[in-house]
Structures are given as C-alpha cells and as structure tokens.
Write a structure and sequence with these properties.
- It contains one helix and 13 strands.
- The strands form two sheets. Strands 1-2-3-6-5-4 form a six-stranded antiparallel β-barrel.
- The protein is mainly β.
- The two termini are 38 Å apart.
- The N terminus is likely disordered.
- The radius of gyration is 20 Å and the shape is elongated.
C-alpha cells in the first residue's frame, strides 16, 4: 500500500466503518483484520447483493475528528457477510461530512457568555458545524454562548458557539460551534453518521 496522509487513521480490528459501493450504497460494518494490502470487514447486516460485486470497486470509510477517510480498493472475496477488500493505496479525506445535517431532538442548555439569556431547550437538527434549536428565550443574533449538549451515550458535549441565524420562524435559532474538543468532535461525527445510516435503512423499508 502506498503512503497515506499522516492524519489518516489506521485501520484496526474492532473499528466501526462504512462500506460504500455505487450499486449498494452504504453498509455498516466492523473491521475483522487489516494490513497494508487488504482489510476484512463483517457487515452488520448481510446483503445478498454483495455476491455480485467481487472484482468491483468498493471503499471503506472511517470517521475521525478530522473528517471521513475513505480507503479505496476492490472486493476480492466475500463469504457469509465477511468481505475482503484489496486496498489500492488511495486514501481520500472527505470534509463535506462536516456539513451534513440530520434531524435530532436532544436536550441542550444554551447560556449567553456576556448576556444573561438562555436555558434548557431541545435541538431540531444537528451537524458537525452547528445546530438548530427551539428558541424559547429570544436569543439575540451574534451573541456568544456556552453549550451543554446531552448526547445519547457518554457525558454531555460542552462547546462554545455563536447564534448566527434565525430558523424557519422566529422561535428557531441556528448556532455555530466555535470551540469543540477533538474527542467531542469525533463523538459528534459518529452520532451524525449513525443517524444518517439509520435514516437510509428506514428509507429502504
């Protein structure tokens, strides 16, 4: 495998990844083993369409705090939901995922840093760059805020942000994240990716 960017995460057993192919879309999987030449993954749900893809281009995507890293290659073998992918050496960092927005109703506390405004409310949608909230407090635009977001797993996510726009009506506000720790960025991106995958599964019935 050719050299990869220093920021690219190493593929290791146990990591949760996405398998992507133009014909089947995205499929959740877990790495079973990996080396410089290939990676073997176990699909979360077996997909019979995979049998037709041996020899075809396929990619493995892994999420880190820096974005999505896509390892490209070709499907060399598959058996009972276990896929072996011969890697080509190409790794692409995809930053556009930071802007994917998913519907999410999570408890969040917003407090003005320099103004005594805010309180507890809920998010309406969420991305790695910010969130839209139900604004019960008439938050002024362009104020800086402290954010405590209750994540489904683990401790709350704490961040600094700024109120940057009015939503579809005056009772909604968009807040941009200005300061989030690297571990919390990673947690947020994983949550958004999981929501995206669940939405895709639901759309397929």
């Amino acid at each position: 495998m050719s050299s990869v960017p220093a920021s690219a995460p190493t593929l290791t057993p146990g990591q949760h990844v996405i398998v992507r192919n133009v014909h089947v879309g995205i499929l959740p999987a877990t790495i079973e083993k990996a080396d410089a030449a290939s990676v073997t993954v176990a699909l979360a749900v077996k997909d019979d369409r995979i049998e037709r893809l041996v020899g075809h281009e396929i990619a493995v995507e892994i999420t880190s705090g820096r974005g999505i890293h896509r390892y490209t290659g070709a499907l060399s073998a598959q058996k009972a939901g276990s896929l072996t992918i011969a890697l080509s050496g190409d790794v692409e960092r995809i930053q556009r995922r930071e802007f994917v927005r998913v519907a999410a109703h999570l408890d969040v506390t917003i407090r003005g840093i320099d103004e005594d405004v805010g309180g507890e409310t809920t998010t309406l949608d969420l991305s790695c760059r910010g969130m839209r909230i139900a604004d019960k407090f008439s938050l002024p635009l362009e104020i800086d805020v402290r954010i405590v977001l209750q994540m489904p797993d683990g401790p709350p996510l704490e961040a600094l942000g700024r109120v940057v726009r009015v939503g579809s009506d005056e009772h909604q506000k968009g807040i941009r994240f200005d300061s989030v720790s690297r571990p919390d960025e990673d947690r947020l991106m994983r949550y958004i990716r999981d929501r995206e995958v669940k939405a895709l599964r639901a759309s397929r019935g």
